[in-house]
């Protein structure tokens, strides 16, 4: 009996450590990241990654909502610390140059206070947008995400099984 209790306790401790420090699953509740992520999908988030590297443009990150730290959101990093960000003509401009490539091949709407005109991302902060800009509550409305609020990078959709894939 003692061996069984010890085994169960060690398994529980290891599982909690992995969940807290290494990788955790998150549920996608809204359409803000469509078509990349759809409601009902579940993603794995590498929580350890940003202990060794800095977040990069294009990363899909889970972070504590700056207005309510009890709530987590998932969005794509668009603007890095110190960059000038502007949304105009359906494009995101970084330091005056439109973002290009597959990750940013979509229409972005210049809504919200921070989505109007050119804004400089403060040091230690990031500008994030949902891939479905028309239906996303993101940095355009509530501002920048502090580096300390970023929990990790989403890297894999693991549910439902027929939609398993690595995220880019």
Give a written overview of the molecule.
This protein is α+β, with helices and mostly antiparallel strands and 168 residues long. 15% of the residues lie in helices and 36% in strands. The protein is built from 2 helices and 12 strands. Strands 1, 2, 3, 4, 9, 10, 11 and 12 form an 8-stranded antiparallel sheet that branches. A hairpin with a 2-residue loop joins strand 6 (91-94) and strand 7 (97-98). The longest helix is centred in the N-terminal third of the chain and has 21 residues, at 2-22. The model has no long low-confidence stretch (mean pLDDT 92).
List keywords for this structure.
168 residues; alpha+beta; four-stranded antiparallel sheet; 15% helix
* Strand percent estimate: 35-45%
Rg estimate, integer Å: 18 Å
Derived from helix and strand composition plus strand pairing, the structural class reads alpha+beta
Number of strands: 12
Helix residue percentage: 10-25%
Please summarize the sheet with the most strands: 8 strands, antiparallel
Can you tell me the residue ranges where pLDDT is under 50 for at least 5 consecutive residues? Answer: none
Coarse shape: elongated
Q: What is the helix/strand order?
A: HEEEEEEEEEHEEE
> Treating each run of at least 4 consecutive H or I residues as one helix, how many helices?
2
Q: CA-to-CA gap between the ends? A: 47 Å
The chain-level mean pLDDT equals 92
Please state the oligomeric state of the protein chains shown.
single chain
